[in-house]
């Protein structure tokens, strides 16, 4: 087997990258460990920045998102009983975000990818090993249907998430990994109930952080901060609903509609960056190269700039014989990644309970007061939340 771009991982990064390349006539093969149903069923965040929305349009997979996505012009921040709204539209010259679940986005991408003549997908591809990317002919060795196979390619895109095979194949002395693990996780619950409010609510409460999000007008996604030793089995639905209502100001708690959970899971919080993101002919994209805590909803939106930069660089290579953009990929992508890592860490640090020391909450309150009383403070939240721009000089 042979192709131009060998893509490891059929999550949003691998799928969208393959589409962007295909529309420029560049063929690729995606090796995905699971099957389509498994990938689509993974519940992840649901907030798209304009950059990701634009990329979906560019990949010609934006039609349903345009119809069904919910544009949001602001968020609500609460501290104890205090309620404040951050108005993105007013603070950032009309920018907004879009509520559209990653499960839906992944489905739209698979619909397009599986009928695209330039893209092949191998599901249930096991034991994937990238070889020869540092100084020879890149090859992806893998096992499919119990048979060993090899895919020769010009370049490898490692789009296989945090636990993937691509970063693991890089010699340890060529890569630096920066990591912080937070001393708590998020317990999330999905329910077919109307959202408690028309916008997202991020709540800093003395019992811990809570978030009220949504997927549509009839489906809600809620989270509460929990200790690292907590188990989902110890959180029957009633306990979850009681806890989240205790962490919200009365006006929201009183009108929250509760119902049976469709899904409930605990996710750890992590900040992680690998440097660099290029190793010869292997490029890391999305979660394979970086992870942020979900507080700013940046995970998928950071993968978006990687996909944009790498697709632009590969298209310039094939269409104009240029390799300068491939050389700049890592540095350019990392600049935006670190900016979002900083924001996600900071937003986490001002909204979560880290310890039992009373001074922590006093300092958080002082910061909340300062931020909400200052146009500069509100603007810093708004412009980071709607997403920092892609580097316009890359191209
Ligand atoms: N071989 C083949 N496929 C693999 C391997 C492997 N060794 N390891 C992982 N995969 C597949 C996974 O099954 C998954 O479908 O790679 C895909 C990676 O997808 P994601 O983890 O969703 O990562 P990515 O595509 O970069 O998506 C961006 O940003 O913060 C997040 O929630 C956000 O998931 C979103 C991500
Ligand atoms: C979600 O809807 O799952 C979601 C929204 C915003 C976040 C994190 C998760 O910051």
Tertiary shape: globular
Give the strand order of the largest sheet, numbering strands 1, 2, ... along the chain.
6-5-14-15-16-13-17-20
Calculate Rg over CA atoms: 21 Å
Bound molecules: adenosine-5-diphosphoribose, P-hydroxybenzoic acid
Strand content: 25-35%
Helical content band = 25-40%
Termini Cα gap: 31 Å
Note down, in words, how this protein is organized.
The radius of gyration is 21 Å and the shape is globular. It contains 13 helices and 20 strands. The two termini are 31 Å apart. The chain has 395 residues and is an alpha+beta fold. Helices cover 36% and strands 27% of the residues. The relative contact order is 0.16. An 8-stranded mixed sheet has the order 6-5-14-15-16-13-17-20, with helices on both faces. The longest helix is centred in the last third of the chain and has 28 residues. Strand 10 and strand 11 form a beta hairpin.
What tags apply to this protein structure?
13 helices, alpha+beta, binds adenosine-5-diphosphoribose, six-stranded mixed β-sheet, single chain, binds P-hydroxybenzoic acid, eight-stranded mixed β-sheet, globular
Write the layout of secondary structure elements.
Layout: E1 5-8, H1 12-22, E2 28-31, H2 36-41, E3 47-48, H3 50-58, H4 63-68, E4 70-72, E5 74-79, E6 82-87, H5 88-91, E7 97-99, H6 102-113, E8 119-122, E9 126-131, E10 139-144, E11 147-152, E12 155-158, H7 165-168, E13 176-191, E14 201-204, E15 210-214, E16 220-226, H8 237-246, H9 250-253, E17 261-275, E18 278-279, E19 282-284, E20 290-291, H10 299-320, H11 324-351, H12 358-373, H13 375-386
Parallel strand pairs: 1-2, 1-12, 2-8, 5-14, 12-19
Antiparallel strand pairs: 3-7, 4-7, 5-6, 9-10, 10-11, 13-16, 13-17, 14-15, 15-16, 17-20, 18-19
Helix pairs in contact: 1-6, 1-10, 10-11, 12-13
The structure holds adenosine-5-diphosphoribose and P-hydroxybenzoic acid.
